[in-house]
Known about the structure:
This protein has three helices and 13 strands, in the order H-E-E-E-E-E-E-E-E-E-E-E-E-E-H-H.
Amino acid sequence: MMKKILLTISLTVLGAIVLATSAMAATTVSFSPASVNVVSGKSFNVVIAINPQGVNNYTEKIELTYPADILEVRSFSFGNSWMALSQTGYDLIDNTNGILVKTAGYPGGFSSATAFGTVSFYAKKAGSGTITIGNNSLAFEVNSQSALSGAPVSFTITAPAVTAPKPAVPSPAETPIAPAEQPTTEQPIEQPVAQTVVQASLAATIGGFMTLGTGSIWIGILVGLIILAIIGYVIYAIYSFIKRKKQKFGKI
C-alpha cells in the first residue's frame, strides 16, 4: 500500500515538473520600450522581440491590437533574416479597427531571443491605453504550434503645451509720436505774435506810402529821392533866411 502511495506521489511530481517545463519553454513576446509617454502629433517606435526559450521556432505570426481612435500604425519593418508572408490573413494593417498582423519565417529556425520587427505608431490625440498581443498570435515549431503571450505596452499621450502668443512689436512707422508739450501760459506766445503783427503792419503802411500803393520798388525810390530833395531844400531855405537876417541886423 505504501509503495502505491509513493508511486502516485512520484508520478504527480513528475507530471507537475513536465507541465512546468512546458510552460517555461513557451515562446514569449516582449516590447521595447514597455511604456511610452509622448505628445500628440508625434510618432514613436516599438520593437517586437520573440524568445522561444530554447525551442527551435521557424515561423511567427504576430497580432497586435491598439486603440485606433488614439493610435495609428504608420509603418512596420522586419528584423534581419526574416522572410515575410504576405498572404491574406497573415499580413494586415487595419487602422480602423486597430489591428496589426505580420507573419514571417526564419530560415534554419532560432531558439533564443530575436528581434522580429519594429512598428512605427502615430499619436493622433491625447489619451492612454495599451498595445496588446492578439489572440491569433502563433509560434510555429517543427511539428507543432503554440500561442504567443507577453506583457502589453502601456502608453500615455499628452496634449501639446499651449504657448501664449508674443505681443507684436510695432514698426517705427506704426509707433505713435507723442504730441509736443503745450505751454501752460498764453502770455509768452501772444506778445511776440502781437509785436510781429504791429511791425508787419507798420512796414506795410510805410511801404504802401512810399510806393503810393503801387507796390513798385522804383516808385518807392523815386518818392524817397523827392522827399530827400524837399527836406534839403527846406533846410537850405531856412539856412538862407537866417543868414540874411544876421546880415541885416549886423548893418544896423
